[in-house]
């Protein structure tokens, strides 16, 4: 619920309600059973990252002795920490109930997740052999009692806290405590041999529990028990100002320091003995500002994202076949096609191959002189990086702006940076104080004695792995009015104090906020004059209070506003006198909605932009982002069509409202599941 009739939703609380929508997917019977388990994993993984970053930030505010009300939507930081913990405990309880329900349903499908106490004789033999061969060599076990200093627990690693009661002739029993780190290099779900039509799985934690006697053979104990714990650490990067270090060295050092960041969350099995819990909390110096969460028998449920498919296609989503972009062939020259008209790639409905084809062709084309590209996140075995290296080997001048501070991908980007640099790629490491989040590429080709530009602008990363599950737009164009300005963005990277002016692109940090403000003002003026006035926006998160206020102003002026926001939304729609002309929904489904579209009626001549930027303070003021206008009328129609399909969703859309209850949208219209309908839309375009 919204507190104190506030006009904003706190961003941390809104994020938790977003994660609740992810949790809803795990309970939705329209979702295949194993996919539901994987949504539980996504819910848990999201929560880990939330505590590493957002909870840690609020905790820092408290420890600095500040209230944080100005940046937390009017709520005191200390009160917010308590509220977050209470919500998370409730959500964790709900997730455990859902997990038990799914496990019961899996049994109805002949899939059994069994505990160490439920093994039959043949399974016991398999488990013992598996433990000795696969698990024991990787096991890290620490006896705690005699240590003068408690070991530093790894961030979000899972541990079994072991208590042994040692045999003694004295009346007072000696207790020994130990920690076993659950190995990360082994699948969390160990598939046991099938028995007839029945499949069996034991979780690695339980397999280790079964083999505790093998681990602690040197102790003569009367009883032994093991309960899971985990700790989450502050993941903010503290970058030092040592001028003698390179930027790569500073980021590397900061990433390394993250491993010993302050703890912000301690999760434990609620059935753990009070004596064991007290021992651990005292030794680990768990503080009042840390979130202490009683949980179930298993933690790190993010591992359910990798739950084995067991060959059961009936319990998984049908895989779609990515479609070609109509009129754009990967057989001939992609540059020749783009020279004639703009094309839009919408992954995962369209194949990501066009981005790869563009770069491969540029790498080999003798007439291509330069390639410039921004990199935020790459796949683990990136064909993008391979194509850029190939281009260098073919004599092209390749410039890569690589963002070393892409959260949780810092180490991967450092490794790619070193690899690219070693191959002769010119690297730019960004602008001091700004993350580069734009998704742009520009090539220059010599044609008829002059330079012709080609390029693409995207809403998402150039990553062939995430392109299969993230929805993103990529515009391929040879429009020089756009590409000249893309070149200005690259100039800004290389000459960091040179602020350029843009007529077409909307570029952060200097212009995005004001550009969108002007577009909204235009809608307000048109509404007051009785002209057609609407705003349609689709993005990931909406937290900028200034932009919220501007949409409230537009709503009061009579502008009709439709918002599709996947994640955080600090705006409250549908409030009389404030936002009655604003409707907002969130769609959570098979794919992760990642597109960003901004459409303005403009008195009947609709203006449409795609962008890498959400309306968050960081995207507007502290990052380099690029919004690109759409000038091709066919593509404008396509974007509006796909927006409207998503807007009509009445199966996976949840409504933002004052209650913040994640209610599914209900309409009397025929049932529409927008992601499935979007694929049908593009399938039909193939034949039109």
UniProtKB/TrEMBL annotation:
The keyword DNA-binding is annotated on this UniProt entry: no
InterPro entries: PP_kinase, PP_kinase_C_1, PP_kinase_middle, PP_kinase_middle_dom_sf, PPK_C_dom2, PPK_N_dom, PPK_N_dom_sf
Catalytic residues, chain numbering: 437
EC number: 2.7.4.1
Highest taxon listed in the record's lineage: Bacteria
A Pfam family recorded for this sequence: PP_kinase
GO BP annotations listed: polyphosphate biosynthetic process
Cofactor(s) needed for function: Mg(2+)
Catalysed reaction equations from the record: [phosphate](n) + ATP = [phosphate](n+1) + ADP
Domain Polyphosphate kinase N-terminal, chain residue ranges per copy: 8-113
Free-text description of this protein's post-translational modifications in UniProt: An intermediate of this reaction is the autophosphorylated ppk in which a phosphate is covalently linked to a histidine residue through a N-P bond.
Binding-site list for Mg(2+): 377, 407
Enzyme class (EC, first level): transferase
Residue stretches making up the Polyphosphate kinase C-terminal domain: 333-497, 505-669
UniProt: ATP binding residues: 46, 470, 566, 594
Gene Ontology molecular functions: ATP binding; metal ion binding; polyphosphate kinase activity
GO CC entries: polyphosphate kinase complex
KW Transferase (keyword) present: yes
Domain Polyphosphate kinase middle: 123-307
UniProt similarity note: Belongs to the polyphosphate kinase 1 (PPK1) family.
The name this protein goes by in its record: Polyphosphate kinase
């Amino acid at each position: 619920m919204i507190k104190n009739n506030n006009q904003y939703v706190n961003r941390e609380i809104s994020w938790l309600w977003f994660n609740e929508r992810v949790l809803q997917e795990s309970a939705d019977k329209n979702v295949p059973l194993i996919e539901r388990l994987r949504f539980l994993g996504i819910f848990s993984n999201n929560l880990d990252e939330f505590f590493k970053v957002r909870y840690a930030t609020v905790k820092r505010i408290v420890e600095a002795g500040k209230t944080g009300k100005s940046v937390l939507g009017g709520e005191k930081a200390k009160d917010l920490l308590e509220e977050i913990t209470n919500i998370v405990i409730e959500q964790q309880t709900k997730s455990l109930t859902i997990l038990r329900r799914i496990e019961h349903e899996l049994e109805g499908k002949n899939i059994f997740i069994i505990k160490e106490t439920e093994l039959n004789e043949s399974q016991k033999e398999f488990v013992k052999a598996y433990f000795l061969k696969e698990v024991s060599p990787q096991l890290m076990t620490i006896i705690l009692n005699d240590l003068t200093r408690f070991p530093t627990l790894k961030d979000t690693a899972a541990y079994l806290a072991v208590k042994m009661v040692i045999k003694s002739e004295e009346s007072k029993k000696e207790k020994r405590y130990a920690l076993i780190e659950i190995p990360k290099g082994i699948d969390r779900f160990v598939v046991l041999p099938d028995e007839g039509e029945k499949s069996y799985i034991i979780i690695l934690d339980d397999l280790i529990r079964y083999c505790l006697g093998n681990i602690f053979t040197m102790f003569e104990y009367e009883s032994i028990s093991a309960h899971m714990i985990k700790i989450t650490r502050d993941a903010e990067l503290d970058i030092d100002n040592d001028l003698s270090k390179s930027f790569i060295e500073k980021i590397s050092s900061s990433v390394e320091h993250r491993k010993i960041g302050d703890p912000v969350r301690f999760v434990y099995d609620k059935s753990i003995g009070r004596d064991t819990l007290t021992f651990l909390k005292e030794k680990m110096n768990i503080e009042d500002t840390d979130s202490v969460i009683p949980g179930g028998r298993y933690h790190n449920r993010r591992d359910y994202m990798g739950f084995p498919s067991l060959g059961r296609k009936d319990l998984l989503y049908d895989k779609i076949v990515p479609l070609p972009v109509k009129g754009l062939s990967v057989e001939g020259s992609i540059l020749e096609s783009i020279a004639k008209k703009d094309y839009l790639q919408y992954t995962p409905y369209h194949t990501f191959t066009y981005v790869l084809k563009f770069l491969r062709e540029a790498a080999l084309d003798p007439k291509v002189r330069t390639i410039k590209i921004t990199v935020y996140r790459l796949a683990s075995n990136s064909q993008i990086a391979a194509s850029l290296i190939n281009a260098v080997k073919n004599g092209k001048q390749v410039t890569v702006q690589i963002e070393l501070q892409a959260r949780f991908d810092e180490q991967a980007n450092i490794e790619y940076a070193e690899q690219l640099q070693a191959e002769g790629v010119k690297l730019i490491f960004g602008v001091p104080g700004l993350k580069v989040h734009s998704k742009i590429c520009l090539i220059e080709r010599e044609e008829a004695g002059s330079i012709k530009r080609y390029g693409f602008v995207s809403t998402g990363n150039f990553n062939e792995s995430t392109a299969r599950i993230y929805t993103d737009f990529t515009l391929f164009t040879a429009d020089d009015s756009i590409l000249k300005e893309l070149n200005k963005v690259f100039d800004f990277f290389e000459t960091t104090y040179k602020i350029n002016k843009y007529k077409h692109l909307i570029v952060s940090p200097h212009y995005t906020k004001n550009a969108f403000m002007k577009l909204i003002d235009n809608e307000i003026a048109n509404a007051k004059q009785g002209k057609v006035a609407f705003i349609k926006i689709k993005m990931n998160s909406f937290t900028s209070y200034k932009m919220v206020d501007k949409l409230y102003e537009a709503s009061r002026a009579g502008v009709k506003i439709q918002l599709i926001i996947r994640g955080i939304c600090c705006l409250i729609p549908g409030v009389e006198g404030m936002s009655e002309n604003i409707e907002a929904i969130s769609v959570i489904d098979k794919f992760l909605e990642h597109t960003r579209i901004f459409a303005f009626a403009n008195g009947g001549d609709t203006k449409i932009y795609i962008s890498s930027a959400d309306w968050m303070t960081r995207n507007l003021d502290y990052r380099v982002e690029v919004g690109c206008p759409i000038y091709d009328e066919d593509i404008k129609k396509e974007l509006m069509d796909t927006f409207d399909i998503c807007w009509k969703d009445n199966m996976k859309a949840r409504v933002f409202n004052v209650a913040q209850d994640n209610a599914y949208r209900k309409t009397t219209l025929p049932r529409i599941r927008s992601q499935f309908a979007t694929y049908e839309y593009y399938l039909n375009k193939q034949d039109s």
